Amino acid sequence: MKFRVLGPLSAEVNGGSIVPTARKPRQILTLLALYPGRVMPVPTLMEEIWGTDLPQSALTTLQTYILQLRRRLGTAMGPGGVGGGPGGVDGAGGGAKDILATRHGGYLLQIPPECVDVFEYENLVAGGHAAFEAGDDESAAAQLRKALALWQGPALVDVRVGPILEIEVMRLEESRLVTMERRIDVDLRLGRHGELLAELAEMIARHPQHEGLHSQAMVALYRSGRQASALDVYRRLRTRLIEDLGVEPSPQLQRLHQAMLTVDPALDVAAGPKRGSTFDLYAA
Length: 284
Description:
By secondary structure, this protein is mainly alpha-helical. The protein contains eleven helices and six strands.
């Protein structure tokens, strides 16, 4: 079994999709997949589907959705999959009721975490961060790039999310942005500033008030011999922050701007012995 939530929802068993077309069963399947091997309480599932306005038939309807999911799972598993027996998933014994199991107070998907792309992504990110802190920039860049390659679009882009999944989507998207920032930091350390220009131009357009990405764009432009363009990135960000929020750029970004005006030699090298971000290059 393989689940993908980093983009459109995908769930396959023996090469066959078990993703339902109806909205609410899709939500249930997604929420269970995000917590493999853990019981998802019935009240949490109900809150995701209906919010606080529960219909009188909520429990019965939820049980119907679970039954529908088990039928799809059993069909994909083949003979013996619906009622139990040797069908199993990925060579494991048991039927659909064993995989999408009922427990006291809730339901769970009894599958290994590695069946879900989120857990592969998070393991790669952890390895990339560890390599970064250890000073192995080549390994860090490779692992972070591999992690980001798992994304096929915005998280759960084709799932209508309720209050529980909305939090999960926010968490995943924030993780994706932080991982991308760290990967760019590593690439800047490795002298790949020229290769980053187009990507950073797109990123600051998507995140027009994000100071960390703007600092990376400034450094990449500066190291590519485009000092005027780097200073213009700062000018446009400062104008936007003042007009939209009534604040000046952060002190470290102001110091980065001043360093570019004075052609500080530290800008031409890696960020130094501290394993920090480009944004903190001129932190106090």
